[in-house]
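Please decode residue identities from the backbone states below.
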């Protein structure tokens, strides 16, 4: 919307992306003894920052931090991370229902993207009651606020990501606070709201066209 205004001087209507709450919703009374960390996305896409995430998790493992890692991936991984010392449980080509379940099972979701448009996975994680750590990119900043509903780090800054992970792994209270605020954020992105907005714009456009046509015929 800002680009259209800046480049072409035209106003536009922003109809937000949305979350399917039938698929992505929280699980109550979840309290894992060992923190579960979730990664989502295809490992061959460099801009997704998965190598940064694995490097950070490997550092934490070497320092003695205890956690489990799940990776929801569209196809078999192209890289072998065995030499990092990080044990990863892969979930290959999960359905949307299974992906929702993976979010709900997880305590922390990590996104490492260097750039995105509107980034859905962090918002899906919020809607599922999962604490989010994300690289700061233009797309995720559409809804994510550092220290409010997530923790952010500079894309590619592995040591900063390590620090953010230590904070969340070590603090159940901080995770719960981010989860609560993340759920509040996700509530703003419902399909019912976006569909109503879209329908309203169609009706307004139709009425405007009808008025213009009547005026033209009158002339």
């Amino acid at each position: 919307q800002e680009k259209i205004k800046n480049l072409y001087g035209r106003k536009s209507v922003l109809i937000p992306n949305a979350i399917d709450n039938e698929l992505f919703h929280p699980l109550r009374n979840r309290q894992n003894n060992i923190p579960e960390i979730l990664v989502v996305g295809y490992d061959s896409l460099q801009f997704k920052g998965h190598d940064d995430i694995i490097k950070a998790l490997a550092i934490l493992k070497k320092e003695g931090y205890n956690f489990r890692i799940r990776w929801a991936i569209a196809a078999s991984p192209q890289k072998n991370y065995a030499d990092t010392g990080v044990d990863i449980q892969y979930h290959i080509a999960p359905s949307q229902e299974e992906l929702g379940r993976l979010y709900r099972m997880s305590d922390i979701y990590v996104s490492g993207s260097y750039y995105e448009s509107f980034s859905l996975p962090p918002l899906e994680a919020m809607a599922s009651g999962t604490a989010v750590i994300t690289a700061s990119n233009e797309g995720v900043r559409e809804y994510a606020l550092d220290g409010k509903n997530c923790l952010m780090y500079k894309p590619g800054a592995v040591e900063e990501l390590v620090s953010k992970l230590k904070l969340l792994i070590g603090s159940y209270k901080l995770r719960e606070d981010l989860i609560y605020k993340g759920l509040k954020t996700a509530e703003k992105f419902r399909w019912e709201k976006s569909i109503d907005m879209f329908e309203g714009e169609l009706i307004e456009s139709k009425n405007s066209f009808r008025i213009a046509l009547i005026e033209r015929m009158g002339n």
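Observation: DSSP finds seven helices and six strands in the chain.
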